[in-house]
């Protein structure tokens, strides 16, 4: 080891899902939306003026903050925006998780949480989900330096009732509680109304899933103005210009088209319910999912085998080799046609494999 390496801030990075690029592929591995963003986004892109790129963007991203606030009937002081919810969450970890006490998040959850905790040297504990992948709210009642969990949880897809979420917040009013609602628009209950009641609650959402904008990188946090001020202080101490001009303009167009958003979400939910029925017929089991993915395990064929077989056909799903979840596939909901092709392949494969 070179001497300078002693001083390197080392971390085992998060591994994002792969981004294969085959013309014929069916991509169900990173929970993207199969439909294009709202038509207004395309219009903005068509009319962009490259000359403007000379100028720095608005560091406050006021237009985007305002559009998000309008959509949720909030004050703009209650909204923070960032480069995808990954950036927003990283800023939250840096700003609010600054205690000697461990922060708490589930053992099976979004695998970026332990990476940020390690990078920022935040102590953490991971209470185990129950056997059937539920969060036990009582596990979050002990002393801690902060709490974060996704609702619905990822990669399990399991959601929590709002009363249970409120129980967790009520027991943790001396620390910041973050509910990561990346997938909430597909049918789970949002904790957003609780931000008026609890000044220590942050609700984080994203344009990447329900608004088809994963490639543009827009996420946001909603909470008490004091929390938002603290977040902005850290953001401006790190990088003032996080949101570029294109993201601000297209983000406004995306969130203003409520009808398109609701229509897209409805189509995905319908296809999800169809996919659940078909998967059951094929011998898969899974907890009910109110997200845009299903976390399923087959009664007789191992997940890894199915993952490889699907992959050969250029059908990409996500497989995690971690201990408690290594016999599950996380299947993103694509278009109805994509899911029919996916189910069609499984029918044929399992038929040959089992009989
Ligand atoms: N939270 C959860 C639970 C996720 O699964 C993801 C998607 N990888 C994110 C946050 C981050 O999404 P984005 O940065 O695209 O908003």
Explain how this protein is built:
The chain has 355 residues and is of the alpha/beta class. Helix content is 35%, strand content 14%. The protein has helices at residues 39-46, 62-72, 84-96, 112-119, 162-170, 225-236, 245-256, 258-281, 303-312, 336-354, and strands at 26-28, 79-82, 103-104, 124-125, 147-150, 177-180, 201-206, 219-223, 284-286, 293-298, 315-319, 329-332. A 5-stranded mixed β-sheet has the order 1-11-12-10-9, with helices on one face. The chain has a 5-stranded mixed β-sheet with strand order 2-8-7-6-5, sandwiched between helices. The longest helix has 24 residues, at 258-281. The protein is globular. The site of 4'-deoxy-4'-aminopyridoxal-5'-phosphate has 12 residues, from helix 3.
Set down the secondary structure blueprint.
Blueprint: E1 26-28, H1 39-46, H2 62-72, E2 79-82, H3 84-96, E3 103-104, H4 112-119, E4 124-125, E5 147-150, H5 162-170, E6 177-180, E7 201-206, E8 219-223, H6 225-236, H7 245-256, H8 258-281, E9 284-286, E10 293-298, H9 303-312, E11 315-319, E12 329-332, H10 336-354
